[in-house]
Amino acid sequence: MQLVSLAQAGHAVTNDLLNADVDFENLLPPAMEGLDVFLAKKKPMPKSEPDQNGSAPVPSAPATSWFSSSKSAKKVSLTSVTSIVDGLKKLYIQKLKPLEVAYHFNDFVSPLLANSDFDAKPMVMLLGQYSTGKTTFIKHLLKTSYPGAHIGPEPTTDRFVVVMNGPDERSIPGNTIAVQADMPFSGLTTFGTAFLSKFECSQMPHPLLEHITLVDTPGVLSGEKQRTQRSYDFTGVTSWFAAKCDLILLLFDPHKLDISDEFKRVIASLRGHDDKIRVVLNKADQVDTQQLMRVYGALMWSLGKVLNTPEVARVYIGSFNDKPMNEAATGPLGKELFEKEQDDLLTDLKNIPKKACDRRINEFVKRARAAKIHAYIIGHLRKEMPAMIGKAKTQQRLIDELENEFGKVQREFHLPAGDFPNVEHFREVLGGYSFDRFEKLKPKMIQDVDDMLGYDIPELLKNFRNPYD
């Protein structure tokens, strides 16, 4: 409505028009031909009656009443947001994005967000070593195969495939999908053409895909195959998807419980997304009950060594394919257990769209905290640089002693140690920068982000949440 009003008032319609300095208070509502007549037919205007104060209300045009509600005494401005997601978009552009741009957050941690990142459907990513049943799992969920799916005992899926809802069945190449403004994959261009040639989008009309998007990944390599390096940063891509996803399923096969070096690096890259991870022991009907008990114990032991947490990960046991269950191996008890586990996992998947808004807020707050800590680190490194002589030597010393510098920042600003980025990755990216060109710490920007976390987001939730719904 605002855009229509601005266009009719003679403003040029651009992407930044709504954020421009426009006098919304004196802006006329949009003129729509036939609207008044239509509303008059549908809902006749009540006769002029005295209100509570005894005076007759001033008749207003129906079009004008779209901008202000007679129920509320408080006047709502035209710039007010219409939903939580719109509110987050606005807060990001006004308060968080300036901080990210000033301190190069996109080079160190995560690319800048676009509107499509906020509007995207919730995503579920499947990870696992080759032939653990990732593509079969997606086929089992959809009850049909998606375009471009290949299933076999050898490593068959050689690319990242995003399975989305679409008007017809087709595969779209990675380079095309990464430049589409309405798709949330523009950040993947940072991984280069070598990755984009191994990335594709598979579209098909499906009721499940109207609510969630599925991400099928290449099998993680093991043994000798690891020595042949991939042409792109596999761990980096996984980490990028992990930040965008609402659920990450780690699939294991009872006959392949060893966690390879590459898989260990992939699981390590999921640090900070522990609440999204679910472990699935697939193809469990291929072993009998006694073997399954031993396999489950071995899997928990292996995961304990890799995840480095005292808490136990939730493991779903089942056989997620369209074949009838092998009751000769599992027995009646095994069949009942698998059915209960499958129901639990499907319930978890069904709840994703309901929780999508909460997760988006959660990810936004997590990103804001990470950007704030990043700004503190960059500001500290800039402050440590000398004014004139010995810049190169000081910079090298700061890079070598980066862990100690993190400790100084943590103590100075009383920050939690667990929120700091990975030292090795940070050191690697710092090598391409000149510290004396970094921005000094700007308390005003930090204060804006603190205000956003402390006041704006709670206010947004209060305005758009009804506790009695």
Q: How would you sum up this structure in a few lines?
A:
With about 475 residues, the chain is an alpha/beta fold.
Would you give an account of this structure?
- The chain is of the alpha/beta class and 469 residues long.
- Helices cover 46% and strands 9% of the residues.
- The protein is built from 18 helices and eight strands.
- An eight-stranded mixed sheet has the order 3-4-2-5-1-6-7-8, with helices on both faces.
- α14 (352-384) crosses α16 (402-413) and α14 packs antiparallel against α18.
- The radius of gyration is 27 Å and the shape is globular.
**How would you classify the quaternary structure?**
single chain
What would the average pLDDT be, to the nearest integer? Answer: 80
* Range of strand content: 5-15%
Helicity level: 40-55%
Widest beta sheet: strand line-up: 3-4-2-5-1-6-7-8
Q: What's the shape?
A: globular
**Rg for CA atoms:** 27 Å
- Largest beta sheet, briefly? 8 strands, mixed
SSE topology:
Elements: H1 2-8, H2 35-42, H3 62-65, H4 84-102, H5 105-108, H6 115-119, E1 123-128, H7 134-142, E2 160-165, E3 170-173, H8 174-178, H9 192-196, E4 199-204, E5 213-216, H10 234-244, E6 247-252, H11 261-269, E7 277-281, H12 289-307, E8 315-317, H13 327-350, H14 352-384, H15 391-400, H16 402-413, H17 423-430, H18 443-464
Parallel strand pairs: 1-5, 1-6, 2-4, 6-7, 7-8
Antiparallel strand pairs: 2-5, 3-4
